[in-house]
Amino acid sequence: MISALVTASKFFALLSSFVTIGSLLALAFLVLDKKGRLSTSGLKIRSIVSVSALFWFFSSLLNILFTLSNILDQPLSAILDPTVLRSFLFQISLGQYLFFQTLIALFVAISSRVITSSGYTAILLLISLIAVSAPVFQSHSASSGSHALAIGSLFIHVIALSFWVGGVIALALLNEADRKVSLPRFSEIALWAAIAVVISGVLNASARLNFAAAWSTSYAYVVILKVVITIVLLFFGYKHRNYLAAKPSVNWGAMTRLISVEAGIMIFVTALGSWLSSNQPPPRGGEEPFNAALAVAGIKMPDAPTFKRILFAYDPDILMIGLLILAVALYIQGVVVLTRRGDKWPIGRTISFALGISAIDFATSGGLGVYAHFAFSWHMVAHMVLGMIAPIGIVLGAPITLALRTLPQSRDGEELGIRGLLISALHSRYSRIITNPVVALAIFDGSLFALYFTSLFGGMMQSHQGHLFMNIHFILAGILFFHVIVGVDPNPRKVPHLVRIVILFAAMSIHAFFSVALMSTTTLIDGGYFKSLQRPWALDLLANQQAGGAIGWAMGEIPILIALVATFIQWMRDDSHEAKRIDRNTERMAALGQPDELAQYNLYLNSLDKKDRETRQ
Ligand code: HEM
Description:
- It holds the Pfam family CopD.
- Residues 183-276 form the Copper resistance protein D domain.
- Keywords: Cell membrane, Membrane, Transmembrane, Transmembrane helix.
- It is found in: Cell membrane.
- The protein is globular.
- By secondary structure, it is an all-alpha fold.
- It folds into 3 domains: 2-291, Up-down Bundle (Formate dehydrogenase/DMSO reductase fold); 300-583, no CATH class; 584-616.
- The longest helix has 51 residues, at 541-591.
- Helix content is 78%, strand content 0%.
- It has helices at residues 2-30, 40-72, 76-79, 82-91, 93-111, 118-133, 147-173, 176-208, 211-214, 218-245, 252-278, 292-297, 307-312, 318-341, 347-364, 367-372, 376-396, 399-406, 417-426, 429-434, 437-452, 456-462, 464-486, 497-519, 529-532, 541-591, 597-616.
- It starts with a helix and ends with a helix.
- Residues 14, 139, 141, 154, 157-158, 161, 165, 197-198, 201-202, 204-205, 208, 223, 226-227, 230, 233, 266, 269-270, 273-274, 276-277, 281 line the site of protoporphyrin IX containing FE.
- Protoporphyrin IX containing FE binds at residues 14, 139, 141, 154, 157-158, 161, 165, 197-198, 201-202, 204-205, 208, 223, 226-227, 230, 233, 266, 269-270, 273-274, 276-277, 281.
């Protein structure tokens, strides 16, 4: 009985979170806004958000109680004891994640009542996505054999479902005018989300199930039923695209009926998914005997590193791969849009972006990423690649410029739209603060000390999400720093070349200081993480940690030196461009028989001086 209540509350929590996210998506990106403010119909969608988020809050709360009652095999009255509840919510990871999600649902329910701009709606959308995916890290997928594959694929499954299922239900709830405006754009998003749902669902099923041994269990039957219904849903999606392609004579009546049926089927499949996630899959069989490395790092202990192993080992970090695929797909889409328009995009930028992405993949899923889990020295090499080498490739790929040139323009001349949102985010106060070179340097180098000289590093290495968060932080901090120093994308503030050079020298010195401090450590800074892996090679952990400090120094200074040279070159080029521009202007003015720029400026100063004297007389 109680397990049925767990499934039911999970289903309502998931469904209401999908509706919340779908409606926020509609509000932020699909329906028309008025110069960044919500329109009158937008205000009605806002009420859908707050009602569904309130449902999300209550069903998550019930899910916490039923889950705890199920785990402890105690009646609800027993688990309502404050001490039992408190220890579940604050000390057990599953409880912490569920509680986090519940609090965010309440926050979204309250704050959505007062939002008036599409920018803040987009921020609420992001927060809701984090909340809906948080419990995935503690779901039973997390304890199955292929740990990283199971978590990563379920994470992508849930995010993609939020867009696809949530978007379709939100469309069904919109008024006709808003639905007509939203559909073409949603159709593009839905295609990507549906592909992600199918791939992640299949990957997750393959990580969880040994079909040869378990195909006749109810778990496998439900998976098969989901696959069949998903094929029907994909057919519906195909019909949508066909209807839309029949512009201008789109059959809106048929389209609306199709959306309602599709939403109904999706709700049913969501119920199946909730059942799957609340029931243990049959054992895969042939499970490996206990392995410390697998239990702690989620990857089997590799043999001692060799050049060949570092180069060719591969253990897919599905979450990171999902993010990289998304980034590459968006970049390619941008280049295709430009090329179709007949515009040119320098090939060097595309190559640079591709190299940056490949470096990230190598340092997360490739051999470097694998060994980074097992030895501090390799972790440091991966850190340098993620924080200092890959970001240079990414910023020289000019992704923001590409986005600004290709994102859709305002649809009615009045809406801010996606491109407008990006521009206002770039010009925002927040953006001006973080692109201040001193702030960028503080984030870039300050995080080294915050991570390695506190207990943070040990804590983050212990968990998959901590490791992922750390890697993403390295990449983003590096992108921010190198964007300010050598970036080709527009920056909200112009940083003089001299300041850039000073900042680079400062980064170099701080980096050297950090590395020397690390090389002189006499205790381990990993909170016992590397010891717990029981690695049979590189047995002196302290020597390996000190070697990590030396590697960090050597590898870290090279990209900074390259950036220094690049900044000098940019500076000289800018100066010679400016000199040429003044020369050209002087010649043009001389040809027209008029004074050149400098002479004009002097005339202007003389006129000011004359006026000044006249007023004093
Ligand atoms: C090829 C198609 C699909 C496959 C193979 C598939 C497979 C899976 C698997 C294996 C899980 C993991 C369950 C667990 O944790 O044990 C899952 C979760 C789930 N699936 Fe699917 N799925 C597919 C499509 C869909 C579709 C179309 C929907 C909804 C419209 C859906 C909704 C869900 C939901 C709601 C969950 C639970 C997520 C959670 O734990 O938070 N799935 N799916």
